[in-house]
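BUG: 3D viewer hangs when loading the predicted structure for this chain

Environment: internal workstation, default settings.
Expected: structure renders.
Actual: progress bar stalls at 90%.

Input used:
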Amino acid sequence: MEKAAGGSRWARAWKLYEEMKERGYEPDTITYTALFGALEKAEGGSRWQRAVGLVNEMRERGVKADTPLLNSLLRVLQKAMFYDKWKRALDFFEEMQERGAKPSVTTYNLLISMVAGAEGGYAWETARGLFDEMKQRGLKPNTATFNALIGALGKAGGGSKWETALELFDQMEEMAVEPDTATYCLVMKTLRKAEGGSEWERALGHFDGMKDRRMSFSTSVYDEMIGAMGSAKGGSKWEIAMGLFDELKENGLEPTTRTYNALISAMEKIEGGSRWDIALELFEEMRERGVERNVASYSSLISTLEKAPGGREWRRALRLFDDMKREGVEPDTITYNALISVMEKAEGGSQWEIALLLLEEMKEKGLAPDTTTYNSLISVMEKAEGGSQWEVALGLFEEMKERGVEPDTITFNSLFSTMEKAKGDSHWRTALGLFDQMKGKGVERGTLTYNALGRMFGVMENGGEWEATLAFFDQMKEQDVDPSRGTYSVQMKKGEGGSKWRIAMRLFHEMKERGLEPDRITFSALILAMEKAGGGSEWERPLELIEEMRSKGLLPRDGKHELE
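Structure tokens produced before the viewer hung:
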């Protein structure tokens, strides 16, 4: 059976096993260990279902387990292709110990490795528990153990556990366990995935540590470092990334698709814009060097074109999209989302009709539009040349809900902005209806939400429905959301006529108490409210406000002025 292991010969091993039983021989621990070894190496993936059947048979026959059998069984599961295999592995781990198996370092390495691959990365604490358990048993973790656990921390659900990864790295030194290239690569991966790219400098420090140890460098190490520089806090450190890329080639290493994709992505994330020109050069270099340009390569390049100054590269992005399809590279949802964003920011106003065609093409290909898709499309409608396409935006919102795609804060804020820029002032009731939906769905409402609605009320003619807008404004403050100066100005502007000027004055003082400096528009709104006060103009107060404006440099001191 041992000699029959590997490739398609597992069937031969199984046949020998059946023949053995037919001849009356009782399978023992060695028999099952050999069979698990054959099933692990089966061509096309392990035959783990048969392994589970053998475990059931072992129970019935009362066969004892030992360390080689346990490890052989775990290797079968490790190569199985189903997501929750780690749970099955832990169950067998407990059972085989009851049958006499004593776990080894290899046993724990196999278990931690499987737990590290758990879907969503939410089993990292289980991996850490296994690590602590093996030490309590007096088993010394080796490099493979640490690598498996640090790998789990890099995939942790809810964000990279980089602090724990660094603690483990320090433990390696304390326990005289030598880190290898893979260890450094995994540590740098956890640092790359730190929230907001905050740990890029630590990643550089570990990279320098590798150099100090004169360790061998792989392309994967450079890929992680370039990725860390691309996602750095405060904007991509693209110049450092380019330096790493040059160093990679100087060291005789070949850049891969992943290398170029990380570098192109770094060109997109530069603070204040993108180096789309360098990204194009890198993309062309890929072709010249015979490096595969995959869907991520095209998607990243399209995203860099989105950030070209003034949106002037939208036509180039469309040509690139056509080239992609001609080359046989199938665009995915990320590609379409990137291209729709380019259409949103197009020079001279968004290309909303093209964006809608992209949505239809996407659906025809069987790709599911997601929240990002619809959010981008709604923003496209806001920025349409010739005025907001607010009705189309509302239609997209309804389609989104029908398809089971959940709207988020960005969705609603974009809708409010779209309606704010629509012609006429009759949309505020619809906006309040959307706001009620937002509350009903438990979607987070912040300053941007309230201020967008506040600005919308500002375009209502003749100060209509001021009480409704004022009630909304009070609700905003109850939610601990700080209104902007513009929102205060809108409310004051609505306070024209009768005794409303008193409320406008209260808002003016409240605004200053919140640390917001009134500007020319704010003063103008308040003065106009007073000029239209019931029973005659509050003529003294406006004069005082005009003097205050002069003292703040908001009006010239020559006596002449115009108010908005």
